[in-house]
């Protein structure tokens, strides 16, 4: 492999390069990699920031939503001054610290079958984190056609779920994710609860798994986890 890490990147990622699981070659793989994130909500913000901080060369963001006051507690990127702006446009004003000025592409649109090739670029990993949404059948069909691995995550107050749609057990994954029904309840008030910590927790796990997948350390197989957001307990459903 023709290594292209700059002296600055060698210093910046020295701790990661010192890890046997990553090394110099692994850091170069990350720099050459692309990942697409559909949804710049609380979880999506964390995944994006973690991937860029780890040295992934290009992160593509798809989001057509707007920033509202009641959404601010979910994430750690936007503030009161960003309320009313489109999330993708407001994100352009932030400094992310990618490996170069082209490390992030932002698209103010929705993911659908007519624009997928443009939005995905060379990426073979799609991270779907749209708030209170489930991985759509249309998106899974596209993933099957293009041999794309899809990480999906969503959270509804007390419970959430995240998982990987890839290779084996796809049929079971589809059946399970389409039948998950989380109740939105209001009885969590009074408990020690922080929405941004939940988003960061789930997003951090997702980002770590994406990095493992890019480095060939992840056993590619469909799996799904349920998460209790009050105590962060995980239950493997598939």
Question: Which whole number gives the mean pLDDT?
Answer: 84
Alpha carbon gyration radius: 18 Å
**SSE series:** HHHEHEHEHEHEEHHEE
Largest sheet: 8 strands, mixed
Spans with pLDDT under 50 lasting ≥5 residues?
Answer: 183-190
The residue fraction in helices comes out at 25-40%
**Strand order across the largest sheet:** 3-2-1-4-5-6-7-8
Q: Give the strand tally.
A: 8
Fourth-tier CATH superfamily name of the largest domain: NAD(P)-binding Rossmann-like Domain
CATH topology of the largest domain: Rossmann fold
- In whole angstroms, the N-to-C terminal distance is 36 Å
CATH architecture label name of the largest domain? 3-Layer(aba) Sandwich
Name of the CATH first level of the largest domain: Alpha Beta
Q: Main traits of this protein?
A:
single chain; 238 residues; alpha/beta; Rossmann fold; 8 strands; 35% helix; globular
């Amino acid at each position: 492999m023709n290594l292209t890490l700059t002296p600055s990147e060698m210093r910046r990622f020295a701790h990661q390069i010192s890890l046997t699981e990553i090394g110099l070659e692994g850091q170069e793989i990350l720099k050459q990699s692309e990942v697409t994130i559909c949804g710049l909500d609380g979880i999506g913000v964390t995944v994006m920031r973690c991937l860029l901080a780890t040295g992934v060369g290009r992160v593509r963001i798809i989001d057509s939503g707007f920033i509202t006051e009641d959404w601010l507690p979910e994430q750690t990127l936007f503030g009161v001054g960003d309320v009313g702006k489109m999330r993708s446009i407001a994100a352009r004003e932030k400094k992310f610290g990618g490996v170069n000025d082209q490390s992030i592409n932002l698209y103010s649109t929705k993911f659908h079958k007519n624009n997928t090739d443009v939005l995905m670029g060379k990426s073979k990993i799609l991270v779907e984190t749209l708030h209170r949404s489930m991985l759509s059948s249309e998106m899974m069909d596209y993933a099957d056609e293009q041999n794309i691995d899809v990480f999906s995550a969503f959270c509804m107050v007390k419970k959430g779920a995240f998982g990987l749609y890839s290779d084996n057990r796809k049929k079971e994954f589809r059946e399970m994710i389409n039948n998950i029904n989380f109740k939105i309840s209001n009885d969590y008030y009074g408990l020690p609860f922080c929405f941004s910590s939940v988003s960061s927790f789930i997003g951090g796990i997702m980002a770590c798994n994406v990095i493992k997948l890019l480095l060939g350390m992840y056993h590619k197989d469909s799996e799904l986890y349920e998460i209790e957001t009050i105590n962060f307990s995980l239950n493997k459903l598939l």
